[in-house]
Structures are given as structure tokens and as C-alpha cells.
Write a sequence for this structure.
């Protein structure tokens, strides 16, 4: 019994909290819920898909320039509070860096920029002042939804996510590209 | 040898008092119950019991509640933030755990019940909202989301408290107030499903009508009109719509009464010896049976015992004085709807882990008895002294967060912008107005204003 107590006291010394840094690219699944790996997989899949489809070449031959895209809402219809921001930002970055697509600011930040521009009209020197009515209109808008289905029986749980993104022509409402990515996980508790 | 033993005995006796945690904190509770909050914080500050490290979490929680009620929201949040960190970083202190085996579990650090650690964020969110910092309140929502997920994963069995509908509902309300309708919708829907699947069965608490209409509105505001229509049909309700121009919303939380306190009771176990040194502690009345392996030595093992008494905590309800409440403003009135039955959750949480707690209590007893037997085999008088000591120190852990309300009710109202004078009418069981609390609320157009009120009136523990 005494030895048990001594053991416990020793064990107390071993119970240290450890923190280690890991590569953000490494896939680690803990709870089975939406995580960074899912977000990255969605971004990679969607970017690869959207930039390799015929709508891009068709627009370029028709208009003689690269298309301008605005990223709209990605609505979350799933059962979890998922931050769509992470993969939306990834996609925007890839769009911009690829040089084949231009991206303009979405509704949320547009207002802020306009406020700043309005402020410049009064306080900035005339040669550095940003001018009104020079904004670039977008040709396409990217929107999407996230859905989930959870099936559970006792200790087993299947979590299924489906992310749909659509690129819509601003003038004609035509859907020029539809991307889909599914993620399915089996969790055993 | 004898002298050192005496020192140990005196030391052990000093560690224990026979009173429950509620009784030890009587001065504080006396002030708190009657609303003398300034005196309550002073009583708390000078209480020696509260300043001990193992009670630090409870001290922070109690002070946090009192400061919140005094309107010192920033100070209250400091305390709750410390409590949050304490709850997050909790690790077993094995020396204290071992010591508690010889004495009683009051020696261990109080780590908080699951529902208590969730309620920290309710108070924090309320504080941040009163300070006008909705972004910080949203941080609390995200923390809650992580906590709720962890709680759900912690237990595999159904029919136990592992999902909190009220907290999801609260998250929805805060998300909606911040303009994030999509997340509000998800939170409301999760809350509704938990009320429907868990709360109605376990606690007899149905989904509030207010939540149903919030869910419909959030669906439409997110742009999910298909889901909005689906819920309208399911609930037989209409989309309540958003405040008209010149109107704003009031979300009012009424915290009714006081949650339960812990008391002590004991259970007798008879011991049945099996083959190969194994023993079973059995209480046939309650259908409980715990096997232990005692090593099989001839003396100094628990196999020599026949009957043992185990001290165990139980909750004692403090029945609320008021049965209901409503908000009344000139032409309209709104009934406050039950959203969280803290009392029932407390009882359920203890019941859920009763078996685990009992086996811990029995282990504690076995260790004590084995020590006694081994002493008795060397010196009979020493053994007798230790036996008395064992009985004196056999106590249950009666600590819990005792400044929580008995239940939480809420209502949402659309009010004209500017100053509004309202009455909170507290009702008896016969729906008579027992007390009127005048309130003044300033509403900004298109915004959500939050208020909460805690009526402390409650019966003494165990009284009906």
C-alpha cells in the first residue's frame, strides 16, 4: 500500500504538460470533426478544378482579357460551426497568384475601403488621392454551400461533408463551373 | 514512534471538519441569499476556507457571480477568466489524491462539474455584452463550442447529460445579435435538436417556443428559405420577422432562485469474500456491487471486514419561491420561458457518475481499513485510535458552485427605440404577482439589448 502511494507521488512528477510544434501540412485527426486538413483538402481540390476547366479559356477568347472574380457567401448548412474563411482565403490566394484570374474585394470589406477613400477625398493630397468610380466590376461570382450528414449508432459515427462551390456569370446568371468535394469519416468512440 | 503517530493524528484531524461546504460558508451564503452583496464579497475575502488552493475555483466562481451582480463586469470577468484557466489547466495532484485516500476527497482540488464549467461562459458572455464588447462575447461562444464538443466526446453512453441545449441556444442568440445569422441558425438548430432528443426526456424541459421562432427567423435571414418553410410547417408557426424601423430587441434572462447544495449521506456495504483474495462490496437494497482484489494476505487486508459505511455526497434542492415570471411593458407582455434547469442537471450529473464515485469511496475505505488492520496486528491500542480516526475522517466531498441559479428562463421582445420602462413580474404557483421589479432598458434601433436578473429567493436546502 505504501509502495502504491510512493508510486503515485512519482507519477506526479511524470505528469507534465507537453506542447510540440507540428507542420501545418501534417494530417492529424483527433475528434472526427471538421479540421484544418479538411479545409486544406477542399481548397486544393477546388483550386485545381476551377482553374483547369473550359470556362476560363472561353472567357479569355471572348473578352480578350482575364476574368475578374468576386468571392461571395459560402453558406454553412452543416451541423457544425465551420469557418469557411480558411479555404476561401486559400482559393483567393491561388486565384491571384496564378495570374489567370483577377479577384476584387467582397462586400464586407468593400464598404470599409470606400469609407477610407471618402476620407482621402478630404485629407489626402490631390496627387495621392484615390479616385471614385474606378472600381473593377466582377465578371463572375463564387458562391457555395457546405452540408453535412451525421449517422450515429452507439459508438460508431459516420460524418459526411459535402462542399459545393459555383461560379456564376454576373450578367447572364449562367453557372459556368460547379465544384464539389466530399469528405467522409468514420469515427469510433 | 508514538509521538510521531500522534502528530499524524492531530494533523489529519485538522484537515477535516464535519460540516458541509455549504455550512462552512454560512456567513457568505447568508449575505448572498438576502442580496447583501457587498457584505457577501467581504465574507468571501476573509473566509479561510475559500482562500485554500483546493477551493480556489469555487472562490473565483462565487466572487465572479457577486461582482457580476454588483455590476462590476470587468472585475467579474477577470475572476471568471482565472476560473476558466484553472478549469482548463486542471491536472491531478497525486500527492493530494493519495492523501485523500487516507482522509476524504475534500483534500483534493475542486475541479468543477461539467455544467459548472460551461456556466462560466454564460456569465462571461453576459459581462462582455454589458461592457459592449460583442466580439469578446463571440470568443466565449467559440470557446463554448470547443467545450461542448469535448463534453460530447467524453461520454459514450446515451441518456446522460453530455449535450447542453441552453448553451447552444445562448450561442445562437449572441451570433444573431452580432449579425452572423448563419452561425446563429446552426446553433439554434443544434439547441432545438438537443431539447427535443435529450432535455425533454432527461429533464422534462421542452424546446422553448421562443427558440422555435428564432430558428425560423434565422433560417430566413441566412437565406435558407427551404429550411425556414420546413420549420414553419413543423412548428405550426410563422416567421416572426425582424424589428421594424425604429425598433430594437430585448433579450432578457431571468435566473430564478438558487441551485442545489451538496449534503452527505452514507451507504452501508456488506463484504462478501470470494476465492483467491477477491472481495465484493455489496448493497443489495440499491443493487450495487463492487469487486476488489485485496492481495490475499492473512492479516492487514480488507478481507477481515464484514460491514462498512461509506460517506457519499448528494444534492439537496433549494426550491425556488417563484414559479414563473413575465415581462410587462405598456401594451405587451412576454412570459419568460424555461431554458435551463440547472437543478435537474446537477442531480443528473451526480447520478451519472454515482457508480464511479462510489468505487472511489470504497477504495478510500479499503485503504483506511487495511492500514487499521495492519496497525492492530502490531499494537491493539494504536489500531483502535486509527479506527476512530478513520470514522471521523470518512466524509464526502460536499463542494459545489452554490451561487448558480436554480433555473434560467428567457424572453425576447421587440421594443421601440429609446428608454423603455418595464416590469418584471415574479409569479407564485397560482400565477399571482408576488413581486414587481421595475426595469429601465435603453433600446437602440435594429440592435439587440441584453439584460439579466437574478431573483435569489429560495427555500432552505431540502425544504419543500
Amino acid at each position: 500500500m505504501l509502495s502504491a502511494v510512493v508510486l503515485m507521488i512519482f507519477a506526479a512528477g511524470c505528469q507534465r504538460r507537453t506542447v510540440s510544434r507540428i507542420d501545418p501540412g501534417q494530417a492529424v485527426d483527433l475528434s472526427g470533426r471538421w479540421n484544418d486538413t479538411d479545409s486544406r483538402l477542399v481548397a486544393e481540390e477546388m483550386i485545381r478544378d476551377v482553374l483547369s476547366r473550359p470556362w476560363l479559356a472561353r472567357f479569355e477568347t471572348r473578352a480578350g482579357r482575364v476574368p475578374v472574380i468576386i468571392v461571395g457567401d459560402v453558406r454553412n448548412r452543416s451541423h457544425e460551426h465551420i469557418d469557411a474563411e480558411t479555404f476561401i482565403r486559400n482559393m483567393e490566394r491561388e486565384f491571384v497568384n496564378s495570374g489567370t484570374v483577377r479577384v476584387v474585394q467582397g462586400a464586407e470589406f468593400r464598404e470599409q475601403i470606400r469609407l477610407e477613400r471618402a476620407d482621402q477625398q478630404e485629407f489626402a493630397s490631390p496627387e495621392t488621392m484615390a479616385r471614385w468610380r474606378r472600381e473593377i466590376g466582377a465578371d463572375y461570382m463564387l458562391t457555395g454551400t457546405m452540408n453535412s450528414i451525421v449517422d450515429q449508432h452507439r459508438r460508431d459515427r459516420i460524418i459526411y461533408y459535402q462542399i459545393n462551390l459555383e461560379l456564376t456569370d454576373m450578367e447572364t446568371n449562367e453557372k459556368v463551373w460547379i465544384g464539389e468535394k466530399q469528405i467522409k469519416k468514420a469515427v469510433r468512440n | 514512534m508514538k509521538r510521531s503517530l500522534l502528530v499524524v493524528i492531530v494533523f489529519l484531524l485538522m484537515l477535516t471538519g464535519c460540516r458541509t461546504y455549504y455550512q462552512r460558508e454560512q456567513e457568505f451564503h447568508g449575505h448572498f441569499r438576502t442580496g447583501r452583496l457587498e457584505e457577501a464579497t467581504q465574507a468571501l475575502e476573509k473566509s479561510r476556507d475559500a482562500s485554500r488552493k483546493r477551493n480556489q475555483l469555487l472562490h473565483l466562481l462565487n466572487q465572479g457571480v457577486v461582482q457580476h451582480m454588483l455590476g462590476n463586469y470587468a472585475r467579474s470577468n477577470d475572476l471568471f477568466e482565472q476560473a476558466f484557466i484553472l478549469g482548463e489547466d486542471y491536472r491531478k495532484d497525486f500527492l493530494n489524491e493519495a492523501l485523500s485516500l487516507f482522509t476524504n476527497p475534500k483534500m483534493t482540488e475542486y475541479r468543477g462539474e461539467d455544467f459548472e464549467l460551461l456556466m462560466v461562459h454564460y456569465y462571461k458572455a453576459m459581462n462582455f455584452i454589458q461592457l459592449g464588447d460583442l466580439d469578446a462575447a463571440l470568443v466565449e461562444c467559440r470557446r463554448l463550442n470547443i467545450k461542448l464538443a469535448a463534453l460530447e466526446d467524453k461520454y459514450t453512453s446515451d441518456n446522460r447529460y453530455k449535450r447542453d441545449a441552453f448553451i447552444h441556444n445562448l450561442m445562437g442568440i449572441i451570433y444573431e445579435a452580432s449579425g452572423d445569422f448563419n452561425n446563429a441558425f446552426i446553433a439554434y438548430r443544434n439547441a432545438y435538436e438537443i431539447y427535443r432528443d435529450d432535455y425533454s426526456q432527461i429533464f422534462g424541459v421542452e424546446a422553448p417556443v421562443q427558440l422555435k421562432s428564432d430558428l425560423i427567423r434565422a433560417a430566413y435571414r441566412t437565406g435558407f428559405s427551404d429550411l425556414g418553410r420546413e420549420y414553419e410547417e413543423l412548428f405550426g408557426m410563422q416567421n416572426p420577422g425582424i424589428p421594424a424601423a425604429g425598433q430594437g430587441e430585448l433579450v432578457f434572462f431571468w435566473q430564478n432562485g438558487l441551485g442545489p447544495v451538496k449534503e452527505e449521506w452514507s451507504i452501508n456495504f456488506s463484504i462478501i469474500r470470494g476465492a483467491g483474495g477477491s472481495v465484493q462490496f455489496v448493497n443489495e437494497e440499491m443493487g450495487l456491487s463492487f469487486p476488489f482484489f485485496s492481495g490475499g494476505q492473512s492479516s492487514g487486508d480488507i478481507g477481515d471486514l464484514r460491514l462498512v459505511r461509506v460517506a457519499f455526497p448528494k444534492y439537496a434542492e433549494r426550491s425556488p419561491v417563484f414559479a414563473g415570471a413575465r415581462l410587462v411593458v405598456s401594451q405587451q407582455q412576454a412570459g419568460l420561458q424555461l431554458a435551463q434547469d440547472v437543478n435537474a442537471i446537477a442531480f443528473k450529473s451526480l447520478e451519472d457518475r454515482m457508480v464511479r464515485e462510489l468505487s472511489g469511496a470504497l477504495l478510500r475505505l479499503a485503504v483506511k481499513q487495511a492500514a487499521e488492520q495492519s496497525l492492530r496486528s502490531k499494537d491493539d491500542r494504536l489500531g483502535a485510535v486509527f479506527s476512530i480516526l478513520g470514522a471521523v475522517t470518512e466524509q464526502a466531498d460536499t463542494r459545489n458552485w452554490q451561487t448558480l441559479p436554480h433555473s434560467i428562463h428567457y424572453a425576447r421582445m421587440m421594443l421601440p427605440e429609446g428608454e423603455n420602462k418595464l416590469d418584471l413580474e415574479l409569479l407564485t404557483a397560482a400565477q399571482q404577482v408576488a413581486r414587481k421589479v421595475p426595469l429601465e432598458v435603453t433600446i437602440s434601433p435594429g440592435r439587440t439589448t441584453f439584460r439579466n436578473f437574478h431573483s435569489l429567493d429560495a427555500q432552505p436546502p431540502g425544504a419543500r
In short: The beta strands of chain A are 68-76, 102-104, 140-153, 156-169, 175-188.
